């Protein structure tokens, strides 16, 4: 069975970020992942993870200017300098905090701009791979219901980008929730793209709550990951129905343990 990490962008959001690390460790998690931790000094983040005995897996690149609608910069024409700055910021933070991966966010793109944006993203990814060869760079397609206009929403698009850029440290973030909303046929997509998958995330479809409800039979997902030989972490990136600790009853429902 998989080993699970706590995504602290969604879990224990009733407390400061460093306190969420303590909460995750108390709940039994041995790894955590973050969204945008940049308000907390990287050194303090590393100290907190070491103190509580949890591994820090990954962070996201900065979104850019959220007030202007930015949700990542990787595919935005004319923003290459902003992307480079954000990538350096993320890579520096990852190294100082002990994180091993970065989700490189592509951003929201008008449909008519997508051909040019594809070329921009490919060049930016090649740049990122050169800047951070010691880190895993993750590409995550995001469904169009939750983020209309996001650059890509299918696993095949991410896989094609990886193939064209050809950098060994760029891999797929396979978020079962996003795949379920965008495409379905999750087990076949897992099997087809497993060699490119660097991280897996989970949440219920369509609610994005704990994975013990909704359309996805997560028992089958976990069994497939084991059968296929996936040895990485599975990130719990769901929004709890109520309290985070109370919601962890899904582990008993699905007859799995955190590690």
Structure description:
With 259 residues, the chain is α/β, with parallel strands linked by helices. It has a 9-stranded parallel sheet with strand order 3-2-1-9-8-7-6-5-4. 45% of the residues are buried. Helix 3 links the parallel strand 4 (58-60) and strand 5 (101-103). It is built from 10 helices and 9 strands. The mean pLDDT is 97. It has helices at residues 17-27, 42-52, 80-97, 114-131, 155-165, 176-182, 186-193, 218-228, 244-247, 250-253; strands at residues 3-7, 31-33, 55-56, 58-60, 101-103, 136-139, 170-175, 197-202, 233-236. It has one domain (3-253): TIM Barrel (Alpha-Beta Barrel). Helix 1 runs parallel beside helix 2 (42-52) and helix 3 runs parallel beside helix 4.
**What average pLDDT do the residues reach?**
97
The description of the largest β-sheet is:
9 strands, parallel
Question: What count of structural domains?
Answer: 1
Say how many strands there are: 9
Poorly predicted regions are none
Terminal CA distance reads 8 Å
Order of helices and strands: EHEHEEHEHEHEHHEHEHH
User: Total number of helical segments?
Assistant: 10
Outline, from the CA principal axes?
A: globular
Radius of gyration: 17 Å
